[in-house]
Amino acid sequence: MEARARSTPLGPGGEFDRIREVLRGARSHSSQVLVPVGDDATVLAPDLVLSTDLALEGVHFRLDWIEPDEAGARAVGAAVSDLAAMGAELVGVLASVAAPAGEVWAPRAAAFMAGIRDRVEGLGGLLLGGDLTRSPSGLLVDVVAVGRAERPLLRSGAGPGDELWVTGHLGGAAAAVRLWQEGAPVPCSLRGRYAHPEPRLAQARWLVAHAGARAGLDLSDGLAGDAGHMAAASGLQVILEADTLPREPHPEVTLEEALHGGDDFELLVALSPGAESDGRAAAFRERFNLPLTRVGILRAGRGVALVAPGGGEPVALTRGGWDHFSRIQEDMF
Q: Are residues 321 and 211 in the same domain?
């Protein structure tokens, strides 16, 4: 793969407007950088894949919802999911942790760091190093995920007529957050979807090698928002079909949460037409015992549109996924 002269275009959203502003005029071309900013991770020559992800108490997790060790493990799972989005194999992570001082916080910080270590090792990686400092308030970890990929899966490879497919189920984590905020009981299955995200590392590599995945990314900010990034990167329009979205099989999960909720960490991939009829989808399901569901197509145009339940003409979606700088979402926690 040759170095690319410019970053991959990002989809709409306040968070991404800020990123675009930072990157305006920045140098992006280098013989050592094969995939610059704009995908889920950066690729350095010849096959090194790097990504970084923050997890901040009160923003990404709350300790009245999950335990400290789960919060550490969740941060690793979310960060490593970016490697899965690139079709990469995990090498390890570097984790920089900030924790408050004091007797009350000491056991929480220890459990938080143990959760980080155990999750890295559980995913088959190594804890490569990091940093530890004092936090004035709450726990924080910055996870740098390190992997390798001979054939990175990019957001920009989709073509007109390609079909969009999603692994697993959607909306479970968002439903758990809503129930916690409402003070309602959270079913174990939904709690697990939030507390224990599963990076689809092997699944992504299989989809590249055996299903011919042309473009892909992981669903961290919600299907609608992340589909917008693929649309922008590939210069196409994404058409999603509401009736086909694989909602988490629990009555609490709404279509809204499956479409916009975020924190699913499933894969969205573009495959050439016919994956159901030619056996690729069935082979994936048999290999991983995991759903693979067709949720839409790509065609000429821009942005993301939705075919509403029951059918009809696609309607443009003006709302994407999770946005850290949305006025509505600033007060979610």
A: yes
The answer on 195 and 69 residing in a single domain is: no
**Tokens at 247, concatenated:** 């909602």
What confidence score (pLDDT) does residue 20 get? 41
Do 275 and 172 touch, CB atoms closer than 8 A?
no
Please give the Cα distance from 154 to 7 (Å, whole number).
12
Strand partners, 98: 133, 140
C-beta contacts of 12-21 below 8 A and 24+ residues apart? 12/228, 12/232, 12/303, 12/320, 13/221, 13/225, 13/228, 13/320, 13/321, 13/323, 14/323, 14/324, 14/325, 14/326, 15/323, 15/324, 15/325, 18/325
Pick from 188-192, 236-240, 291-295, 328-332: least confident: 328-332
* Residue 318 lies in domain: 163-330
Higher pLDDT, residue 104 or 6: 104
Write out pLDDT tens, residues 103-150. Answer: 999 999 999 999 999 999 999 999 999 999 999 999 999 999 999 999
Q: Rounded distance, CA 52 to CA 315, Å?
A: 35
- Give me the residue label for tokens 């990019």: 154
